[in-house]
Amino acid sequence: MKAYDSLADWFESLNDDCDYPKWSQYFIDGLAALGAGRDGLEMGCGSGAFCRALTRSGYTMTGVDSSEAMLSRAAFLAGKEGLSIPFYRGDARTFRARHAYDFILSPNDCMNYLAPEDLPRAFAAAYRNLKKGGIFWFDISSPCKLRGKVANTISADDRDDVTYLAFCTDEGDRVRLEVTLFVREGDVYRRYDETHIEYIHEENAVCSALAEAGFGILRVEGHLGEPKEGSDRLNFLCRKV
């Protein structure tokens, strides 16, 4: 199965320890401090947690993802809350928006799913889809996290209706995650398998690709604004100049 085909329905509940409300507020406060407008695009929106949070805070959001299963889940969850959010299938490297946005967010590892040679195309697409002065804000799982905490490990999460297993292998410039889900369906558990590959991006290489695309880098910081040294995530806050 493709990545997230089976995981989509369980993604947010299995990640309930990441504190989506606090993480979303980090973006809301940060966008306000940067003077960003209210019209935003989330690239790699997944099941739409950040789109929903920003919409509830008065932003006009559009979500884009390459996974049909994730988009279906995003539409369902937004509808459940009575939120009107358009979701489109698209690729970060090639997506052409119908209009330019005030800001583009791409959190929670979206860029780790792109090979290093694909980052320039993704950054060029983001630049094209932003208004002049617009904000491009994305994160990556840091090299120290992927190499030191993820690679060559097994992670597991056992719940009443689903069991998650991930066998993570170091492949040099990337980490391969072989994911298995056991999902309760009536009186039985059905097994689903899918493969995820997360590429390791070094900060200097990312900054060089951003500058080539025309972005001015405002700052690079760790998860939720913490110091970047040793952080599990690196946030890149950029402006279209």
Fold and architecture overview:
- By secondary structure, this protein is of the alpha/beta class.
- It has 2 domains: 8-141 and 202-240, Vaccinia Virus protein VP39 (Rossmann fold); 145-198, S-adenosyl-L-methionine-dependent methyltransferases (N-terminal domain of TfIIb), CATH 2.20.25.110.
- The protein is 28% helix and 36% strand.
- The chain contains 7 helices and 11 strands.
- The strands form 2 sheets. A 7-stranded mixed β-sheet has the order 3-2-1-4-5-11-10, sandwiched between helices.
- Helix 2 (20-33) crosses helix 3 (49-56) and helix 5 crosses helix 7.
- The mean pLDDT is 97.
- The name of the CATH topology of the largest domain is Rossmann fold
Question: If classified by CATH, what would the architecture of the largest domain be?
Answer: 3-Layer(aba) Sandwich
Total domains: 2
**Overall 3D geometry?**
globular
Question: In percent, how helical is the residue content?
Answer: 25-40%
By secondary-structure content and strand pairing, the structural class works out as alpha/beta
Unreliable sequence segments: none
Rounded radius of gyration (Å): 17 Å
Order of helical and strand elements: HHEHEHEEHEHEEEEHEE
- Work out the strand percent: 35-45%
